[in-house]
Amino acid sequence: MEEELKLQIMDDTAPVWKRIAEHPLLAISKQPPLQLHAFYFDSRDSALQRARLAYRVRREEDAWIATLKAGGQSAGGLHQRPEWNVPVDSNQPDLSVFTDSEAAAMLAPFMELDLQVILETRFERHESRVTHTDGSEIIVALDRGEILARGLSEPIREVELELAQGNAAAVLEMGAALCQNLPLIPDQESKLFRGLRLAGLISDEKPRDTAWPLHRRENAGNAFSQILTWQLQQIIHDTRTHWAKTSAESFHGLRKSVRSLRATLRFCRVLDPDNLLQPFRLALQEWFHQQNQKRDYEALLGYWTEIAATMTLDPAPLQGILSAQAPQQAEQLPQLVAILLKLWASLIRHPLTHVKNLQDFSESQLHREDRKLMAAGKMLLDHPEALHSLRIRIKNTRYVMITLAPLWPGKDSKALLKLLATLQGIAGEIHDADMAGQYLSPLASNRKAGVAFQAGALLGFLQGREARQRKKFQKFWLRLESTARPWDS
């Protein structure tokens, strides 16, 4: 079984490559790199690909190695799949060289296939073997070259950490340590997958999963260990999406994913009696809060674009000022990934435990959280400033319910989720009005009349709407109080 973490290099400039090659954790020697040239084979109708089999023959210096890989899984950059390697005499395709009984059985239906080269890879590899602190052995590969298919090419710039023996958590922990200091990001796409896409034989990157399958009678600890692992893998997917195509929408999606993971971590604290997950809760909270200013400016720009269009104004003066003042630094994506990989490793080493099954635990915990939510809502009548903390509770409840909704497929959960989403949206707009003052008030006295007018118009609009939104919030809150809870039925 092959288990490896692929890390794509986000910045391929010479100084960064040198930093990576000389990083002490990788222990890359000064020896000349290996020269590798691989040929991937399949039939014209992609029979092996449809059977989730990958067959290649690769020249490694003076030797030829045939490799068969079977369908496994790839999530969050960690690739796990059965693999067989056999020395051969040339790069001519021959499936009969795989004599292992399991491999031979998989290949039996394909022995008469007319195989042809579908893509190639040419790259140099710096390799080392390191021992993790827990004794696990990890093969390190630093690869640079290209994928070739149908006259097209795509660069290879990656670090591979393959588990030779030991615990898969060691690979994740080593990856986390590298991402903390280097511009690396997990890559769930293999060289073969990228080559197939380059050749037009498959569609683009697979979409993120939409839900983790829940089993009501599964042990709650085991279930939440899997839910948390799935959620952090989705964040890694969203991190790659944002890095590849940076936009306000992709950044918003990434923040939502992180918020959902934070809500689940908070919800299942009782499953972590030794408080091993607390450092990750705090680290994710810090990363999230570091992005708040960027989010605030993007919200203001969105509001102003909408309002300027309604008022038939040229948005440029205020738009330019807000864009210039918005934080320009990167969102610290490798640092976020490092937190996630360490959390993943911790869940492997210390799975959560509990005596209850998933449904019983979730319902009792939601009942408790709901009482706290209702109590926080009652405080709002006498303490309007408490809306911010109530908004956070609403968010946490909603995100947890989205994750656990398959436990209650009836209409009650949908009605409750819809109300929570409405209240979250209203509370968010009230928060934006409160937040806008600190950014727009100084601009309202700007010496440039256009900027001052537009800042005042935007601030006036947001603050004028706040009173109406607070009344609207109260109306929907009363509906929430009387809405059935699926965990009470």
From TrEMBL:
Name of the protein in question: CHAD domain-containing protein
Cross-referenced SUPFAM superfamilies: CYTH-like phosphatases (SSF55154)
Any matching Pfam family: CHAD
Organism, as annotated: Acidithiobacillus sulfurivorans
InterPro entries linked: CHAD_dom, CHAD_dom_sf, CYTH-like_dom_sf, CYTH_domain, YgiF
Domain called CYTH: residue spans: 1-199
SMART domains in the cross-refs: CHAD (SM00880), CYTH (SM01118)
Superkingdom: Bacteria
Residue ranges annotated for the CHAD domain, each copy included: 217-482
PANTHER family: INORGANIC TRIPHOSPHATASE (PTHR39569:SF1)
